[in-house]
Amino acid sequence: MRRRAVVIVGGGPAGAAAALFLAEMAPEVAADMVVLERSRHPRDKVCAGGLVPQVLAHLEALGIELRIEHVTAHRACVRVPRHTVSRSDSNLCTVIRRRDFDKLLLDAVKRRGIEVREEEGAIALEHSSSGILVTTAREQYRAEAVVGADGSGSLVRRQLGLELERSRRPIGRALLCDLPLEAIHWSGYDEKRYDFDFRAVTRGLLGYAWVFPCLIEGEPHANVGVYTRRPLGARREAEILRQKCSELGFSGSSLPRRAWPIRWYHPKQPIAGPRVLLVGDAAGVDPLMGEGISYCFEYGRWAAEEIARAFAAGDYSFASSQARFHRSWVGKKLVRLGVAADFFYGRGAPFWFFLAAHWRGAQDVGLKWYNGVDGWDRKSGFSALWAAIWGEARGRCDSVTEVIREVR
Ligand SMILES: Cc1cc2nc3c(=O)[nH]c(=O)nc-3n(C[C@H](O)[C@H](O)[C@H](O)COP(=O)(O)OP(=O)(O)OC[C@H]3O[C@@H](n4cnc5c(N)ncnc54)[C@H](O)[C@@H]3O)c2cc1C
Q: b/e per residue, 309-339, with b = 16+ CB within 10 A?
């Protein structure tokens, strides 16, 4: 039996982020921590690999250079029922491959001197009188605290009493495929553009289809996928994906698609319990778009703060941790994304899409808020609304002035 202050189960982005933040906040605790990863990096992960700008800010703050193949999208084309909206900015999204990105993060963890044990998955977890017992095929650990960073199907969540009953579990799904550029007709790669398509909402999809430009071993590809907040059944989901690929001109007979569940954040989902915290997909990500990588960093920072506090006080109950998360700007943002998902994927969808397509001020603020640019996601809903109204009014004044100038 090995004693450890902290055991992190899972070495994906959420586990790596928690380890890196803890190494900064409480190096003496991090020195007695182990990260258990059941695979060995580089390993594949079903993911489109779109990083919102917020992720790049986290990497910079953690001193990690993005020295892996990536494509930066400067333009976006968003199709909603009956309308198309185009936007551009210096960086809207950076598209990476997860096998490279996750290895980059875990290598950074190792470089900080943190013990990482790959090909060693947790197979059982239980509370004992003096900690949590974590059993792997090779060892047994007794930990003061455990971080569940083991993805949407989290064993930690299931075995340490943090699972909701089946009917209340907030689970969506995403499926994707990678198409070589020469197999389709899509201008998005050359234009460094990504496409979001919400039109299938009218056919019952609680989500959207996407096309991202990406590089796979140096070759330009389009990553095409579908997210749905509630599974529709494998056949219907695959049909929507196939239709999107056909629109891009793909005519192949078989589509090499892969699917994975996405657990989204719900305030009723427990993410903290005695001696245990959940992070990343194990806890729940963005319910509107299924974006999860930036939240891995936010959860990681929260978990590190909670663990540092617990060790300083000698109290591992994490009794107030969930409430603190819920009150934080990240907790509030996740709740607002849930409300937005109720609007856009609910009965009022045509109204909300119409509003979003025509209100440019709201698009400006909404995009910055979503991407975590200029601190917008930390500001109040009131200041966002005010900026959206003011931005719209200013935009219209500029247009009127322009017209008057032209008439003169
Ligand atoms: C199709 C699809 C597309 C997506 N596209 C995007 C996107 O473009 N942008 C974005 O931000 N998000 C996207 N997401 C969401 C994103 O992939 C997840 O939010 C993110 O992977 C969560 O990271 P994580 O570290 O919590 O979990 P994971 O990435 O799942 O990592 C969990 C790790 O834990 C390990 N593990 C599991 N069980 C054990 C165990 N018992 N013991 C030890 N180790 C274990 C696994 O091997 C894995 O390495 C997408 C998801 C899907 C399904």
A: bbbeeeebebeebbeebeebebbbbbebbbe
Q: Which amino acid residue places its CA nearest to atom 16 of ligand 1?
A: 292
Burial of 238 (0-12, 13-18, 19+ CB in 10 A): middle
Residue 399: pLDDT band with limits 50, 70, 90: low
Question: 150, 157, 176, 194: which to mutate for ligand 1, most atoms within 8 A of CB?
Answer: 150
Closest CA to 278 of 290, 266, 270: 270
Would you say the CB of residue 122 lies under 6 angstroms from ligand 1? yes
Q: Say yes or no: CB of residue 39 within 6 Å of ligand 1.
A: yes
Q: What are 102-121's pLDDT values in tens digits?
A: 999 999 999 999 999 999 99
Question: Is the CB of 174 inside a 6 Å radius of any atom of ligand 1?
Answer: yes
* Pocket of ligand 1 contains residue 49 by CB under 6 Å: yes
Return the exposure string of 38-57: e unless at least 16 CB atoms fall within 10 Å of the residue's CB, then b. bbebebebebbbbbbbbbbe
Residue 50: CB within 6 Å of ligand 1?
yes
Tell me if 284 sits within 8 A of 341, measured CB to CB. Answer: no
pLDDT greater than 60 at residue 129: yes
Residue 363 CA to residue 369 CA, distance in Å, equals 10
